[in-house]
Amino acid sequence: MQSSFEIDKSDVLKVKNAVLAGDETLKTVLKDYHASEIAILFERLDKSEQQHIINLLPAEIASEIISEMDEESHPEDLLFKLHPDKRTEIVEELDYDDATDIISQLEDHEQKEILEDLNEEDASNIRNLLTYDEKTAGGLMNTDLICVNINLTKKDAIDEIIRQSEEMEEFYTIYVVDDNEVFKGIVSLKDIIKAKHNAQITELVKIDAVYVHPDTDQEEVANLISQYNLTSIPVIDEHQKLLGRVTFDDVIDVMEAESTEDILKISGVSEDEELSGNWVEAVKSRLPWLVINLGTAFLASSVVRYFDPTIKLIPSLAAYMTIIAGMGGNAATQALAVTVRRISLYDLSDKQSYRTVLKEFTVGLINGAANGLIVFLFAYFFDGNPMLGLVIFLAMTGNLVIAGITGAGIPLILKRVGIDPAIASSIIITTFTDVFGFMLILGLASKLLL
Amino acid sequence: MQSSFEIDKSDVLKVKNAVLAGDETLKTVLKDYHASEIAILFERLDKSEQQHIINLLPAEIASEIISEMDEESHPEDLLFKLHPDKRTEIVEELDYDDATDIISQLEDHEQKEILEDLNEEDASNIRNLLTYDEKTAGGLMNTDLICVNINLTKKDAIDEIIRQSEEMEEFYTIYVVDDNEVFKGIVSLKDIIKAKHNAQITELVKIDAVYVHPDTDQEEVANLISQYNLTSIPVIDEHQKLLGRVTFDDVIDVMEAESTEDILKISGVSEDEELSGNWVEAVKSRLPWLVINLGTAFLASSVVRYFDPTIKLIPSLAAYMTIIAGMGGNAATQALAVTVRRISLYDLSDKQSYRTVLKEFTVGLINGAANGLIVFLFAYFFDGNPMLGLVIFLAMTGNLVIAGITGAGIPLILKRVGIDPAIASSIIITTFTDVFGFMLILGLASKLLL
């Protein structure tokens, strides 16, 4: 029995040393780890050490490690570099969906090379799954499942389930089809066992099962599994034929990936940037956003240029204007984060959208006035200039109101017109608070102080 | 059969009208919806409409709706306002973990009122669960589970499972204990059925099962369920006694909540702010961060003040310095988002942490030079001042390097000393890029241009 597993340096060192010490030692050391733990250890091992371990272990365990490896550790490269016989053994052990995920990351000629070595059934199953978009139910689904005919009796169904489950480690739900493979519903093993001796599947089947189509977006699949607390969801084609199933563990991975996307996009990072990617990828992903921001920053700075004469007369405005703009940017980021996350988790009605903007208006007004008051007092006592204080108070309040309205309003509008609201990144939103912040403080100063 | 469910206005209107049309119509309309769908509809109904529907439906369905309601819709208030008899009926239908989650949100005297009406068994189970911290395995666990003695035969075990599952809608794993209720391992229903007629549980039990303790943090529980692809994980006490289980669907909710926390914290919003909370809560959650930011903004603006004479001589510096600071803030936010998310999903070694900072240094250098070049050209052709262009080029490059180092380095250091890295919100990080940005451009200008 084991409790939670956290990798530390000693584990990594132990395995690294065991690789050097020879195969017998290595085998003994690896026995202490679950396949998914070795997959985590792999993140800290060299490519050659990874290959050594995969070659040493039986295909059954090696395939589990490869399927559990994070996609950012590139299991496809490890797999492709193995001896063809070992590679084939491992692929044949993998679930079809996992094999497809890994193989899909390779070049076309590499994919072909792997598929040619497989037996006909595996090859055609994987070829079929490779046709679906990675981010849809088709891309996530597994064609291995337990499926019984609706006309079976309890006894025959149990025999059938035992037969089909021979090759399968886990199944959660039993799918029911008719003679034409048309999906009819689901039944649980528990209900079959509890049923009367002479029961028929047709009496036990739950017909109002939730399902998806192969082109259903992965986010929608995740939402359904989460909403209905399902261990798996069937995938059916346009003729109601059962194609496969997506299981809850795939969905957990999808949800993590979608959350990462939200966080990155809202911060002005391309959703395609791998968290552990190298600097070349990072520059490619971020430079375009920064150049866009440079354009908007010029826009904001042109406001400052326009008021150059005012700043020349009251130089302390240069210091205060950075405070107004910065505070606006931060308040806008707050409103943006709350709104984007809310849109991502819930479906908002028109009334709720309107109320959200109204709420952020109120929050901006109060937070603006509170911070404005502090700055007013500072200007009054430090600069001895109450009129300057008034200008700053008004600019702070106004800019935080604009921050609230744009931080909540822009993602809501984007969602309405069908654009991903997370694209309303802080980079876009802070343009508004920069431009309006500078306009407010410098414009008010020109009117009231000169 | 039904496909994915998306609420639209017509659903809400149909139900609202049915509430007015009378109970028979309402019953007919509600038949078309799954309990979890009604729970989503509730987000758009008034409190009185919610109560009307709950009172109309049998406790079995009403309890499902209440357990599926989002916590931000406050199911506890709805529950507490029901007639005591109806309330008791509903609570007795709820799973213990769901009942505990809902009741825990009420005031102490309200909790007492509800618990007093329950039967002794339910009341003591819920009282017990209420003692655990909401964000631990104890707070998430359910005490309802299927559990067999390790000494049973196949036949007796199946009888026992059927008996225990009478009251339970779903179970995924069967837990095995000895005569002293000490946890011994798990067994799947499939393995029991497939076993030989005279098999014993002791031959079938899988003994290396992963488990947690009641005080294990919910994030750790979620990681284990996700890492080992478990449908449920047992919770055991310090004497290895089985207390309950946490199921995958609770963990999906936890993961959503943790991702929301990450996004909010990184944007300078308190993790306690409810996404759909009112403006009072939002002000409470955000004002403290803004006031802290105001302090740091004063710090940055004091740099500007220090260089007042320089700005007076070259007023266009006031415009350029906002560009340098703004670009630094955005680049830092990018580096921060990638690093915080990476820390949250993976465990980084010292070497990997070091490489991360090095990578962000390189990214900052390249993105800084690229943007610096654009601004240099602008200063050269627009202001006709190549030396000013050089100053801006150097300041941009320097500030984006600082952005990369702090955006990656500060969360990594916080993690090292045991502080939540997401607290290194963009508000904190942009202080560095503001202060250093102003120092670089104004300091260099003073040296090179005056």
From TrEMBL, chains A, B:
Pfam families: CBS, MgtE, MgtE_N. Its main location: membrane. The keyword Transport applies. The keyword Ligase does not apply. Keywords: CBS domain, Cell membrane, Magnesium, Membrane, Metal-binding, Transmembrane, Transmembrane helix, Transport. Residues 141-203, 204-263 form the CBS domain. InterPro entries: CBS_dom, CBS_dom_sf, Mg_transptr_MgtE_intracell_dom, MgtE_N_sf, MgtE_transporter, SLC41_membr_dom, SLC41_membr_dom_sf. Coiled coil: none annotated. The chain crosses the membrane at residues 319-340, 361-382, 388-414, 426-445. It is a multi-pass membrane protein. It is found in: Cell membrane; Membrane. PROSITE patterns: CBS. Homodimer. Belongs to the SLC41A transporter family. Acts as a magnesium transporter. This is Magnesium transporter MgtE. It comes from Pedobacter mendelii. The gene is mgtE.
